[in-house]
Design a protein that fits this description.
Length: 817
């Protein structure tokens, strides 16, 4: 498939049904300002068909998915030393640091073997959310998912803050700008990820491998110089053995240090979450990358801890240096080459720490997509953006991380207590889920798998208990409270979606070939002006039984002037009824329309609206429309259509030589109706029924296929219900639904044709409900509003979604053109 702009226009033809006629008189499709901005910043849109090409090889995947885990060696050892130093362990901390690091590496080895099992069992995506949902159900899966989501936010905040600390260690004068540098780094990483998966791999691969080279070089040079005696090594701590050291330091302090160092294991699960991003064979490449990650992480972490203990590098509590920086100064020395090596080490450390947040950017949007797909997060998180990434997830992660960085002043030590709780919760649930899977399926080799995953669940569960206990007073309590609260909110959101779905899809039956009686058209007239003339012209395109003009009087003199102008304009063929009385205009109009509710046909109330409105007029019209809707809610056959005047003044009000108004109404040669279909539910059926009632030449339905699988399901369901109008499925290659619809409608319009686009819209009474759904219908209205003789009839279906009652819901709908 060609992906340039010109070819995309050609690809807008419907996949089923007939090709809509194209008019050579139509100008080229204008480019919206928002589309132009996205293209300028992010590049051209990637077609959905190119998703398979946005895959990663093992080299790029190691950089994207492993940067979080690998970068943690820059601060994990330091956090253990700080914990021991604050607890008063003194010089004994240098004897404890290597055994504690070895214990952490032991747990890491168990995790690597455990996640190898997980990746093989769940090649589509083996993260904690999927594994827990498959083996324990949706609610426990929300615990695992929420724990990981919060941990990914903290990953970004901690990694970026640690990277800024490395920059400050190299250039102390930048210390006052700590927060600003952290925020700028998050924005940079977000931009790289919005550019696409392959783009981010190109951006982040080089710093990751430079960092690996620098740390391994630091360890090799440090070990060599210590072995040859060419580096000053303080005298070792005199104790009778490691066991005696543990006896001298309180166990709570030891466990507290172990909890601080366990942050080195965060990010190990990222590869299992991102299996679909690998090139085929996905699970095999993911397992190989995971082993490489484990070996590198173990080597680098143990090496840094050994050098810190050997050189007795004490942590700096002023924030102007780091343990890795002090090790680099001691190992590389004060020569020119040593200074250059130290500078490269600090630059590489700063870059990898800042870019380590990319691991969270690779996994947070995918995990949010899984939640949203199960209706536990807003469905906006399932949408792929301009460059085939989950843009909304990237933006949400960035906003949350920036708030944390600002709140905690980019201080790693203040952020660490919140860290690791979430990731070890997900570790434990994932490994327990795998153990249950082995017991449930008993596939070949299940006993070995049970032993590995069972050991993983026990080991990570113990670490989780240690972290929760030792970090509780320092801030872990906030995460222990936040996760259950978020789970409750997500479950409530799921119940809300479920109620709405049941209401919208209740009692869907096959269409019956019942005849549709022509509607009655009722035109509301406030004054005889251009917008009213346009609305009058629109009524001529509807094959209604009769048309009635209605004026709700608020000033007697104005009413008399309108009646005189109406007769002078030669509109006496359309009777003008005057509604008098006191009280709210909407209530009086509802009383007048009550008689038409008793007729077995639709009464279409057309309200003329000017094309240009000030903000004040727009707000006033919204309020008037809301009052009118409430007044007409009891009348199921009364529809309200707001007919907006065209921007180019197609129907100006003319006057004769005597200054009297002259209105010339013509009937256009044809009137076509297109029903926009996103999914098949009661709202769509209401829109189809409205379209058929207009009595036009042709009625067709169209679906913009941003998701091919969803389009196939819709087409099958459309056939099952024997829909009386043909369904055209058009390719939406760039997932820009408003633009695809605009291309389709403009292609079928002609100078002699009136086109009414009927758009079902699900309206929700509460703000929290409306926030759970996108605003695509508004964008379509704006894109089509600039064309003459293309009118958008917006058919809201009012969804209660507030109870599980099976009581029928009133189908009253209002249309907005």
């Amino acid at each position: 498939m060609r992906t340039d702009e010109a070819s995309s226009e050609k690809q807008a033809a419907p996949a089923t049904g007939t090709q809509p006629p194209r008019s050579s008189a139509r100008p080229p499709l204008p480019r919206s300002s928002s589309y132009g901005v996205k293209r300028a910043i992010l590049g051209r849109a990637l077609p959905t068909a190119h998703l398979v090409h946005e895959r990663l090889g093992k080299i790029a995947a190691l950089a994207i998915f492993s940067s979080d885990a690998l970068s943690s060696v820059a601060y994990a050892t330091e956090e253990m030393l700080k914990t021991l130093a604050i607890a008063g362990a003194g010089i004994l901390m240098f004897s404890l640091i290597v055994p504690l690091s070895a214990a952490i590496v032991g747990v890491l080895a168990i995790l690597v073997f455990s996640y190898r099992q997980t990746i093989k069992a769940y090649p589509s995506a083996g993260g904690a959310y999927i594994v827990t949902k498959d083996n324990f159900g949706l609610i426990p899966a929300q615990v695992a998912g929420v724990a990981l989501l919060t941990d990914y936010v903290l990953t970004v905040a901690v990694s970026v803050s640690a990277g800024v600390a490395a920059i400050i260690a190299l250039v102390p004068a930048t210390a006052p700008f700590r927060v600003e540098m952290a925020v700028a780094s998050i924005v940079l990483i977000a931009y790289g990820n919005l550019r696409g998966v392959r783009e981010s791999g190109k951006i982040f691969a080089a710093p990751t491998y430079v960092f690996i080279f620098c740390i391994l070089s630091l360890i090799i040079v440090g070990v060599a110089r210590a072995a040859t005696g060419s580096i000053v090594v303080p005298p070792p701590v005199t104790t009778s053995g490691t066991l005696s050291v543990f006896a001298l330091v309180p166990m709570f302090v030891v466990l507290h240090a172990l909890a601080s160092g366990s942050t080195a294991m965060t990010g190990v699960e990222a590869i299992s979450n991102g299996v679909p991003a690998f090139r085929p064979v996905e699970w095999r490449h993911a397992r190989q990358t995971l082993v490489a990650l484990g070996l590198l992480l173990a080597t680098m972490f143990l090496g840094i801890s050994w050098l810190a203990a050997k050189l007795q590098i004490a942590p700096d509590f002023t924030g102007r240096s780091t343990v890795v920086a002090d090790i680099g100064k001691a190992v590389f020395g004060s020569s020119a080459l040593g200074h250059a090596a130290f500078a490269l080490l600090q630059i590489a450390t700063a870059l990898i720490l800042v870019l380590a947040a990319n691991t969270a950017y690779a996994d947070f949007p995918r995990l949010a997509n899984f939640h949203a797909g199960d209706d536990f997060l807003p469905r906006q998180f399932t949408t792929r953006g301009h460059r085939l990434v989950f843009s909304n997830g990237i933006l949400a992660l960035s906003a949350a991380a920036i708030m944390l960085v600002i709140a905690f002043r980019a201080d790693v030590t203040r952020l660490i207590p919140f860290y690791a709780i979430g990731v070890f919760t997900s570790f434990t649930l994932s490994q327990a889920g795998m153990a249950k899977r082995h017991l449930r399926l008993r596939e070949p080799g299940w006993r070995v798998g049970l032993l590995i995953n069972g050991a993983g669940a026990v080991a990570t569960g113990i670490v989780l208990a240690i972290v929760a206990r030792t970090k509780f007073a320092e801030g872990a309590w906030a995460i222990l409270i936040l996760v259950p609260v978020l789970v409750v909110l997500l479950v409530r959101m799921n119940h809300q979606y479920d109620r709405e779905k049941r209401e919208l899809e209740r009692d869907l039956k096959a269409f019956s070939p019942a005849a549709h009686r022509p509607p009655i058209t009722i035109l509301l007239v406030e004054d005889l002006d251009p917008k009213t003339v346009h609305a009058l012209q629109y009524t001529r395109t509807i094959r209604s039984e009769r048309t009635i003009a209605v004026h709700v009087e608020d000033d007697r003199a104005r009413t008399e002037a309108l009646q005189a102008a109406w007769l002078a304009a030669g509109l006496d063929a359309i009777p003008l009824r005057i509604v008098r009385g006191r009280g709210d205009q909407a209530a009086r109009l509802a009383g007048f329309l009550a008689a038409y509710e008793r007729e077995d046909r639709d009464a279409i109330v057309i309200v003329p609206v000017p094309h240009e409105r000030s903000l004040r007029e727009h707000v006033a019209d919204r309020r008037a429309g809301a009052r009118l809707h409430r007044a007409l809610l009891p009348y199921g056959h009364v529809r309200v259509t707001m007919v907006r005047d065209h921007p180019d003044g197609v129907h100006p009000l003319q006057r004769d030589e005597a200054g009297r108004p002259v209105v010339r109404l013509t009937t256009r040669q044809s009137h076509d109706v297109v029903v926009l279909v996103d999914k098949l539910d009661r709202a769509t059926l209401s829109a189809v029924a409205y379209a058929l009632g207009l009595g036009t030449r042709t009625v067709r339905a169209v679906h913009a296929a941003a998701d091919p699988d969803r389009a196939t399901q819709l087409a099958n369901r459309w056939s099952e219900l024997r829909a009386p109008v043909p369904l055209d499925v058009i390719e939406c290659w760039d997932r820009d639904v408003p633009r695809a619809i605009e291309r389709y409608i403009v292609a079928m319009a002609s100078e002699a044709t009136e086109v009414t686009v009927v758009m079902p819209r699900r309206d929700y009474p509460r703000l929290r409900q409306r926030l759970l759904h996108d605003r695509t219908s508004r964008k379509i209205e704006r894109s089509l509003g600039r064309y003459a003789h293309i009118d958008v009839a917006d058919i809201p279906y009012y969804v209660r979604g507030v109870s599980t009652s099976s009581e029928p819901v009133h189908d009253t709908a209002k249309t907005h053109t």
